[in-house]
Design brief:
By secondary structure, the chain is α/β, with parallel strands linked by helices. It folds into 2 domains: about 200 residues, Rossmann fold (3-Layer(aba) Sandwich), CATH 3.40.50.150; about 80 residues, no CATH class. The chain contains 11 helices and 9 strands. The strands form 2 sheets. The chain has a 7-stranded mixed beta sheet, sandwiched between helices. Strands 6-7 form a two-stranded antiparallel ribbon. The longest helix has 15 residues. The chain starts with 9 loop residues before the first helix and ends with a strand.
Length: about 300
C-alpha cells in the first residue's frame, strides 16, 4: 500500500509555475553550475557507459548545464505546471525526459541512478519528515558509490534584524523580492529549532508593508514578476506550514538523519550514515552552499 502523503502544496506549485521568474541567487548562478558540473563529471562510469542522472525538480540552470556526455537525464517533479511552464525545451542532454512523481516515493528502480542532483529541495517541505523521506528514496535509487549533489539555503552568520531589512526594502535596496522573502524568513526564523511558520512571515510582511501596490508602483515592480509571488506566499501561509532554514551543515545533518538507522542521530553522527558529506562550499556569498553526499553501501 502506498503511503498517504500530504500533497496539499501541489496547487501552490502549479500556480507558481505560471508566473515563474526566478533570478540569482535564488536560482543557480555560474559558480553553482561549475560546482554541479564538476560533481557530475566525477560520477561518469569507469567503463565509459552513459551517466544516468536524476534531477529533482526542473531547474533550467541545472537541466541546461554542461553534462558529461553521454548523459541520460531524468527530471522528477510532481507538478504538471512545472513541466508545462518551466522545464526547458532545448539545450538538454539527448533523450532527457520529464517524469511526474513524488520525491518521497520515486517511480524509479532500486540502484538505477549514478548521480542525483537538486536545488533547494529541502526547503520545499513543510517539516523535516519530508527531507528524511526524500533522502531515503535517493539512497534507494542510487547505485553503490553514487552521489547526491544539492544546494541548500542557509541563514547568514550575522543575522539581519527585521526592522533593518524593511528599512532597506523601503530605501530601494531590494529589487529582487524573491531574495527579500527568503532573507525575511531567515530573520523571522531566528535560532528556533522548530522553524518558522509561513503565516508568521506573511504577517510580518503585511505589518511592515500595509500597501504593497503603492510600494510596487514606487519601485516599478509588476504583478507578474514580483507582487503576485507575495500573494502566493499568503496563499501558502493559509495552511499550517513551517519552513526551516539552517546554518551551514544543518541541512546535511538532517539528510543524514533521514538515512540513518537511528532517527535521533546527532549532527556529529552524520558521517556514519549511508550518505556522508564529502564536499561543501559553505563560504559562498549567496548563502546557498553546494553539498555533495556520497552513498555508502
Amino acid at each position: 500500500m502506498k503511503p498517504a502523503f500530504d500533497r496539499s502544496a501541489l496547487p501552490y506549485w502549479d500556480a507558481r509555475a505560471q508566473r515563474w521568474k526566478v533570478s540569482q541567487p535564488i536560482s543557480p548562478g555560474p559558480e553553482d553550475q561549475r560546482f554541479y558540473e564538476a560533481c557530475a563529471a566525477r560520477r561518469v562510469p569507469e567503463d565509459g557507459s552513459e551517466l544516468t542522472a536524476l534531477l529533482l525538480g526542473v531547474t533550467p540552470a541545472i537541466a541546461q548545464m554542461r553534462w558529461p556526455g553521454p548523459t541520460r537525464l531524468v527530471a522528477l517533479d510532481w507538478s504538471g505546471g512545472m513541466f508545462r511552464n518551466v522545464w526547458p525545451r532545448e539545450h538538454l542532454p539527448r533523450g532527457a525526459a520529464g517524469v511526474r512523481g513524488d520525491w518521497r516515493a520515486m517511480p524509479l528502480a532500486d540502484g538505477s541512478v549514478d548521480f542525483a542532483i537538486g536545488d533547494g529541495c529541502y526547503s520545499t517541505f513543510r517539516d523535516l519528515e519530508g527531507p528524511a523521506l526524500l533522502n531515503r528514496e535517493v539512497h534507494r535509487v542510487l547505485r553503490p558509490g553514487g552521489e547526491f549533489c544539492l544546494r541548500c539555503h542557509r541563514r547568514p552568520d550575522v543575522p539581519h534584524s527585521i526592522e533593518r531589512l524593511f528599512e532597506w526594502l523601503h530605501a530601494g535596496r531590494f529589487q529582487n523580492l524573491d531574495l527579500f522573502r527568503w532573507i525575511l524568513a531567515m530573520a523571522v526564523h531566528g535560532d528556533s529549532i522548530e522553524g518558522v511558520s509561513l503565516h508568521r512571515v506573511w504577517e510580518t510582511w503585511r505589518e511592515h508593508v500595509p500597501d504593497a501596490k503603492a510600494l510596487a508602483a514606487r519601485f516599478g515592480w509588476t504583478d507578474a514578476d514580483q507582487c503576485a509571488r507575495t500573494a502566493l506566499l499568503r496563499a501558502r501561509a493559509l495552511r499550517p506550514s513551517r519552513l526551516r532554514v539552517g546554518r551551514a551543515v544543518s541541512p546535511v545533518a538532517h539528510a543524514a538523519r533521514g538515512l540513518s538507522p537511528h532517527r535521533k542521530a546527532s549532527i556529529p553522527a552524520a558521517s556514519r550514515s549511508r550518505l556522508a558529506l564529502t564536499e561543501g562550499s559553505f563560504a559562498k556569498a549567496s548563502g546557498a552552499p553546494g553539498v555533495r553526499l556520497a552513498s555508502r553501501r
